[in-house]
Write a structure and sequence with these properties.
With 282 residues, the chain is an all-alpha fold. Helices cover 76% and strands 0% of the residues.
Length: 282
């Protein structure tokens, strides 16, 4: 299976999900997963199919279920998530795209995704610099090198992550609340989260960007805003499959100032599309 075939099959599954043709989407996804070595994804698909079959049986028996609509939407969103992760797993094996080569090469990334550990190192940077100055800048090179390496690890591991666990989400929230984490470091993390979402949708990361909008520092909340606008543009129908997330975004939309900011970001993004044309003219 080549890259084009993988993307075409994934696109077809997404079209079925968007058309609410869940049974066909599950059938196609089962075929899609046949080439994938990830058994956890297959187990998740089997659980989805079981839940879907039970739902159909209850409907045939005429059993009233007030939660049926919520369940159906959850099945759609879970099917899409498995399709996302299957596509990435298959492309990891063959794609020359940097994102997949990064995930494929174990030497470029640490085995554990440890946001908490990275946060501690970055938070200690200011103190280490102060001590170095008192000691006539002894050990400065080592401090700067450790800071730069932590930057790189944090960015690459976050960028290549396809879905936060609850623990990782909590660690990311701690970074957002930290009073000692340098703003530039947090800015870099926001960008990494946005790039990660552009490759693979993750409800927890979108919620984290929404939390970022409440940050007191404008560099953080504006960067989170730009990331959110890009994600909403990339996944316009996807958001509707997450009622709680959609409701939260709707609350922000009720704020006139938020709407103005979103409009401003869209205008800047549209203007940026002309940059290449202007470069050619110049």
């Amino acid at each position: 299976m080549n890259e084009r075939t993988i993307n075409e099959q994934y696109k077809y599954i997404v079209e079925l999900i968007e058309q609410k043709r869940l049974k066909e989407a599950l059938t196609q996804l089962e075929s899609f997963l046949w080439q994938c070595p990830d058994w956890e994804l297959r187990n998740r698909l089997e659980q989805l199919q079981t839940s879907y079959n039970f739902m159909l049986q209850y409907m045939k028996q005429g059993i009233a279920d007030p939660e049926r609509k919520k369940l159906y939407i959850k099945l759609l969103s879970d099917t899409w998530e498995i399709a996302d992760q299957t596509r990435i797993a298959l492309l990891d094996e063959i794609s020359t795209h940097y994102y997949h080569s990064l995930r494929r090469n174990p030497n470029q990334l640490p085995k554990a995704y440890d946001l908490s550990g990275q946060q501690k190192i970055l938070e200690g940077f200011a103190d280490e610099m102060a001590v170095s100055q008192l000691a006539n800048y002894q050990g400065l090179d080592a401090i700067l090198r450790r800071h730069e390496e932590t930057h790189q690890v944090m960015f690459l591991t976050t960028c290549s992550n396809i879905g936060w666990t609850l623990e990782e989400f909590a660690q990311a929230e701690d970074m957002l609340r930290s009073e000692t984490l340098p703003i530039n470091d947090l800015c870099l993390f926001v960008s990494a989260v946005t790039l990660s979402l552009m490759e693979c949708f993750d409800e927890r990361k979108v919620n984290w960007l929404l939390d970022g909008l409440r940050h007191t520092n404008p560099q953080i909340n504006q960067r989170a805003l730009v990331g959110l606008v890009i994600i909403l543009h990339l996944y316009p129908t996807r958001i509707t499959l997450y009622p709680e997330l959609e409701a939260r975004i709707s609350l922000f939309r009720e704020d006139p100032d938020f709407s103005k900011q979103v409009n401003r970001v869209y205008i800047q993004l549209l203007r940026s599309q002309e940059t290449e044309k202007i470069d050619k003219k110049m």
